[in-house]
Amino acid sequence: MPAQGSWLETIAAARDDIGRHSTADRVAHLLREQITDGRLVPGQRIPEEDLGRAAKVSRNTIREAFRLLINERLLVHEFNRGVFVRRVTADGLADLYRVRRILECEGVRCAPSAPSEALARVEAAVIDGERAAAGDVWEQVGTADIRFHQALAALVGSPRVDEMTRHLLAEMRLVFHEMGSPREFHEPYLARNRRLYDLLERGDLDAAEAELRSYLDDAEAQLTKAYREQE
Amino acid sequence: MPAQGSWLETIAAARDDIGRHSTADRVAHLLREQITDGRLVPGQRIPEEDLGRAAKVSRNTIREAFRLLINERLLVHEFNRGVFVRRVTADGLADLYRVRRILECEGVRCAPSAPSEALARVEAAVIDGERAAAGDVWEQVGTADIRFHQALAALVGSPRVDEMTRHLLAEMRLVFHEMGSPREFHEPYLARNRRLYDLLERGDLDAAEAELRSYLDDAEAQLTKAYREQE
DNA sequence: AGCGTAAGGATTGTTCAACAATCCAGCAAT
DNA sequence: ATTGCTGGATTGTTGAACAATCCTTACGCT
């Protein structure tokens, strides 16, 4: 039985999510889906008027939606030229991994002091990935992988870190789409996710951090190589 | 003599900063100053119309300016209620310091591989603080202190970390204003900034990180205490 | 007094239409 | 091939309007 009053806090914490979505929020949500699904490719321009006509909302509202996604780093804005789906450069990729190393490794180090549900979410992501792989749904494998790393960073227990990581990993999706072939890329990392989780659960933090670092190094090297070749 | 073509890169790198400021950017800049100077106090509401009349810009543009500052976490937006200067809670303060610890300590660890100019900026901030203290300009001492920590995080050499830290420390300003008496708060940390820099320059990373951690622990404890008392 | 309800004004959310400023592709001229 | 110009398209910004929501005040009831 929960302590008295705990449900009040639950409500207070969730009060932001009750129907309080502006039109701009909904448009942003639609756009976000189009981007993470890869239907909008990096570099592509998104004209205000076209989108406004399609979504049946006014230009001003479209612009507000743009601002939201710009701050999530999914879109970029060039003055007097419009907004474009972000194109991640090699430098950007390096920076992305630099910050991922910082946040996710910190998450690993915080694992002992993290609540058990947080660790459970890491395991859930591992399992989801394995299940998706077994079913040959490589799209979902990618999603599970992202959730895995999100859960790692969440071990820090900081809302701020959570948000940073969410944006970080959303940007990673852009990178994935820009190089295609999700299967080849994600497959080898499935086993490593599992091993990393086992180390974590066993409490062997040093080994876990080492594994994570090597994991990130490998992934970055692989992506960077593919990037250089693409040009 | 610079290599041929290098000036082109210089221009390409700076092309963002050439007069390309929208009206919303300028309004946001004005507002940001009002906030960091403490003329707009945390919790205060900012009506669109009033601001629009004062700045002589339309409501739509005001709203765009709001979005910018909302994403810098200086303002908060409540649906159908308006925007307010952010009020940092005790929880928020704890999270603020949690992330500062992560980023600034990482900066310290990166010091050896950081370019010498980056270290020079740390020293410059220390000196600025000492000079301002000597001149009894405690407002500037606070500014120098913020620049010091910004420079620490910049040792990581990541644009992303730079931006996060900028927002982080801007939010710290809100905390300072919410409790007043800058002198008492900042004075004891002047000497510690100096010592931290000396340790850094000497290359004694472990001692530097320990000093920084203790620094942040003390500051957080002091602020949290003042916070609790305020209610 | 305490509580639910209704009315009203004030503010925000969103749309629309217009104009100025800027960019861009295409063409003309050298 | 480069430069300069021109017209069309897109963005930047404004102002007004209306709908939706909130807040305060007043009212009536127990």
Automatic annotation (TrEMBL), chains A, B:
Residues 21-88 form the HTH gntR-type domain. Keywords: DNA-binding, Transcription, Transcription regulation. Signal peptide: none annotated. Transmembrane segments: none annotated. It holds the Pfam family FCD. Gene3D superfamilies: GntR ligand-binding domain-like (1.20.120.530), Winged helix-like DNA-binding domain superfamily/Winged helix DNA-binding domain (1.10.10.10). InterPro entries: GntR_C, TF_FadR/GntR_C, Tscrpt_reg_HTH_GntR, WH-like_DNA-bd_sf, WH_DNA-bd_sf. SMART domains: FCD, HTH_GNTR. The keyword Cell inner membrane does not apply. PANTHER family: GNTR FAMILY REGULATORY PROTEIN, TRANSCRIPTIONAL REGULATOR, GNTR FAMILY. This is GntR family transcriptional regulator. The lineage of its organism: Bacteria, Bacillati, Actinomycetota, Actinomycetes, Streptosporangiales.
